[in-house]
């Protein structure tokens, strides 16, 4: 039998959504621009940028990320 699913309180979920939105808003443009320069292809840069944000979302508690650029 699987463990019962746990749910975050609605206020915590809203806070996390706001933090994620701020993180994305602050870093998406520069990351995609930097990746475009490094890769030479804006389409590959956009894909990799999206993959990076998915990685952050799925593997990290956003509240604990103190330095965003290494991601």
Walk me through the topology:
Blueprint: H1 10-39, H2 42-59
Helix pairs in contact: 1-2
Low-confidence stretches: none
Mean pLDDT across residues = 80
What is the rounded distance between the termini?
Answer: 36 Å
Strand content: under 5%
| Count of separate DSSP helical elements | 2
Note the main sheet. none
What radius of gyration results from the CA coordinates? 15 Å
The helix/strand series, from N terminus to C terminus, equals HH
Helical residue percent band = 55-70%
What structural category arises from helix and sheet content? Answer: mainly alpha
Beta-strand segment tally:
0
CA-based shape: elongated
Provide an overview of this structure.
The chain is mainly α and 71 residues long. The protein has 2 helices and no strands. Helix 1 runs antiparallel to helix 2. 3% of the residues are buried. The mean pLDDT is 80.
Quick gist of this model?
With 71 residues, this protein is an all-alpha fold. It has two helices and no strands. It has helices spanning 10-39, 42-59.
Highlighted features:
71 residues, mainly alpha, 68% helix, 0% strand, elongated
């Amino acid at each position: 039998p699987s463990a019962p699913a746990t749910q975050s309180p609605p206020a915590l979920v809203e806070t996390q959504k706001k933090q994620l939105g701020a993180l994305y808003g602050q870093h998406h443009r520069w990351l995609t621009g930097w990746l475009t320069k490094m890769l030479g292809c804006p389409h590959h840069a956009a894909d990799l940028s999206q993959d990076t944000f998915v990685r952050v979302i799925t593997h990290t508690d956003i509240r604990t990320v103190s330095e965003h650029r290494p991601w």
